Amino acid sequence: MILTVTPNPSLDRTYEIPALERGAVLRATADRVDPGGKGVNVSRAVAAAGQRTVAVLPLGGPEGALLARLLGELGIEAAGVPVAGSTRVNISVAEPDGTLTKLNAGGPVLSAAEAEAVLEAVRTRVEGADWIACCGSLPRGLAPEWYAELVARAHRAGARIALDTSGPSLTAALRERPDVVKPNAEELAQAVGRPLATVGEAVKAAEELRGLGARAVLASLGADGQLLVDESGAYFGTARVTAVRSNVGAGDASLAGFLAAGGSGPAALVSAVAHGAAAVRLPGSAMPTPADLDPSAVTTTSDIPLDRVLKEPA
């Protein structure tokens, strides 16, 4: 079972349009609403693979009630913590060439009591969890050290924990030695305080995060592939993707694939890359099912192309 923690969940509404024109009245060719937030997406990907997952998250207002209902329809147990503010709604506008414009709301302000209630909800459900995945930005009202406290409590309970966040929240949590951290290229560069131009520079940055406390680093490099750096070495994975429909949630799908495959080593990296590649071929923030995966299209190697120049993010 994979337990996920999403301190700032959302309803994600995606509109597909022929082209984005500022100031115009546009008609969508398709639209969908999905339960959102990075940890929620991890739960959705785990559930799509037929495995058990529990999502811990604060829920407020009619938006929170709809989010809980949508999770239940996907077979995900929502361990909701009631909060006074309303769950946020995010908007994505997708164009046929893969261009995605996102409008993300700030979300509710959590009180100290509500923040503690989320930590307590994790404690009461941690038994039997193979992994805890803590994902996303922190809502207003939570200090950057909140994730560090969560990692510390998870380890005291004997659980393995994967952390997907950025900025001060990531930096503060490293001292508690999360088992896996999962930055993208931009977040990895931010964490080490310098731009990263090549795959080799990304490897060095991942090694620095390990030096600061991360036991393993799973780094998404967008179209360039993914890196896994752990105590056994560094590995690089890529996959063939012919057409990108939406990259929303692709990194979350990758983390789900990595954890579902054991959360360590090259085999888990293959699963991560396959899940990420499948996710970008789907609309909105849809998560891949086993039928969408093509592990044969994935190549992993410890002979990393250190001089490869990283592409600009889409």
TrEMBL record:
Q: Which GO terms describe its cellular component?
A: cytosol
Keywords assigned by UniProt?
ATP-binding, Kinase, Nucleotide-binding, Transferase
Q: Which Gene3D superfamilies match?
A: 3.40.1190.20
Per UniProt, what is one GO molecular function of this protein? ATP binding
Q: Which GO terms describe its biological process?
A: carbohydrate catabolic process; small molecule metabolic process
According to UniProt, the name of this protein is 1-phosphofructokinase
Describe the location of the Carbohydrate kinase PfkB domain by residue ranges: 23-290
Q: Which InterPro entries match?
A: 1-PFruKinase, PfkB_dom, Ribokinase-like, Tagatose/fructose_Pkinase
Hey, which family's this protein in?
Belongs to the carbohydrate kinase PfkB family.
